[in-house]
Fold these 2 entries.
Entry 1:
Amino acid sequence: MSNFGRLFWTFILLLNSYSKSRYFIVFLKMLSIENLSVSVWEKEILNQISCDFELGKNYCILWKNGSWKSSLAMTLMWNPKYKIMDGEISLDWKKISDLSPDKRAKLGIFLAFQNIPEIPWVKLFEFLKWVYDNSVKTTTFMEFKKIIEPILEELQLSKDFLWRDLNVGFSWGERRKLEILQMKLLNPKYIILDEIDSWLDVDAFKVVAEMLKSLSTDENSFIIITHIFTILEYINVDETIVLERWKVVEKWWWEIAKRIKENWFKK
Ligand SMILES: Nc1ncnc2c1ncn2[C@@H]1O[C@H](COP(=O)(O)OP(=O)(O)O)[C@@H](O)[C@H]1O
Ligand SMILES: [Mg+2]
């Protein structure tokens, strides 16, 4: 090999190792969990979990009922029940483990709850306006009405909903649509979907899944928590993370996960 050839291949090798190193990675935007250990009721539930969720890629976190998936989602968004014993959560290289949920939301994290709570005495309009004013910009009553009404129409939700108590008596399809409405209002970067297929009938699920699909761009990431695969037929996933017995046991590319779809719970 000529001197030039040697020099060329040395350069390529150096570039390759550099691109895989931390120095290169710092240019990527991501939600990161590093060696995270969490306890609840004095019991350790997550042990030394590490995962990176890169902006622009979609992820699936997968395992059976009761494997602490929702607990992980709550910890990412904040919940007083879950105590971080060790490790860090960071967003675009800033540590966020000590931040309150509203600050995390402002930074672009959004959690669609597995069980969406009913909140009596709070009107939907008041709730949405409060969220928007505190995250995007302050609006007057009329300004916000002009912002919110077209989105309601687009999602085929009645304007009357604005004057009902938050989620009280709403069907699950309507509650999910209201979460999508919040996503449209806030344009979050990291969207955690915690088993959003629970409670939806087949038709409502299709509508919601199509809406979510239309929200997926290169500027956001879906982190889809599920123990069934249907939602993945709508949103393409770049990586599948398997969570078992408090550990990330495997990380799979979607193609491999798809192959075991039929036999998943027979394993
Ligand atoms: N309030 C509670 N008291 C006792 N156990 C609970 C409570 N809430 C959740 N758990 C238990 O925590 C475990 C993990 O729950 P969760 O994070 O919701 O799992 P997943 O989302 O994977 O189904 C389950 O075994 C569940 O029964
Ligand atoms: Mg759950």
Entry 2:
Amino acid sequence: MRQFFRLKDLGDLRKDYVLDKFVVVPAADQVTDNKPPSGNDKCPYCPGNESMTEPALLALVVKDGMLQRLSDSEDSIIDDWSVRVFQSKTPVVATSSSASYSDKPLYSEPAYGYHQIVVASPDHKQSLSQMSVEQWGNVLVVIQDRVRWLYTQKSVTYVSIYINSGAGAGAQVAHPHLHIVTFSTIPPVIEMEAEGSHRFMNENGNCPACNVIAVESSGPRQILATDSFLAFCPWAPTYPYEFWIYPKRHITSFSKITQKEINDLALMLRATLGGMSKVLKDAPFNLVFHLSPEKKNSRQIHWHIEVYPQLGTWSGLERGFGVYVNNIRPEKSAEILGSACRKEFGGLMGID
Ligand SMILES: [Zn+2]
Ligand SMILES: [Zn+2]
Ligand SMILES: [Zn+2]
């Protein structure tokens, strides 16, 4: 189980003996706490409890239909926010600078980076799968703002964005929120996707994801298509009911998507998460943004979102060998999810 530690000091990012696998370990004098926060405590992400978190780096306020990007100052807390971003109090990485590098015989570097929390709604009970399309749009505007800002910071090589929804998916706070964690190195999964993508591009002259989009559009694994996005269950899914969302046009940078695409993605996310939560009865899930490392031209990928419902636990085969046994064919899960997601979509568009 994950430990909940408070980083006073920077932890280490240790590399495996031989594999390109990284693990964050706490600093030597770190106090660790195995107890998750108790459910009876006041929610630190709720309006009125802003002083329980770090000051807002960004508080998005909607006023007369206009979005205002504000932040807390020493003597004033913005209290009428719609989306709020602040530094995590239990960060995985930190920007203090006391840890050191080691190379031989074993590799370790400081776990340097930013860990920010994006509170997706002032409403504690709001679920991400039922949130309004407009509010999803506000969240995406904030994510784009953060991605742009973080890539201007030194030692930010990669910006990871993810959601843990439900305790079974690693959420420590019930209030709807997202995580943004940066690294000074490219995470292994992105490195593998970029490497595979690069190889395919060299051999075939085009982007593999663009090919996938052509293959999955209106095929048996498609679940929903909007103007700019396609959602489908992948050919070889790791998790039951796993699905991916890709922009139809070839684009590697989330920073560069347009407001129109943000609005369309908000609709796509709301419709697919809404459909999924109906089918899977609000099962816990993780959602990850696989974006390109914006400063590394040789490591670009066609950006996308992957959603992993958490319905069971892994066995020794998955944990020990990386072979995944899925109990539902993706063609079947696409049929079930597709019908629920298209129904949600129809409801949101006012066509039943
Ligand atoms: Zn709350
Ligand atoms: Zn592409
Ligand atoms: Zn991916």
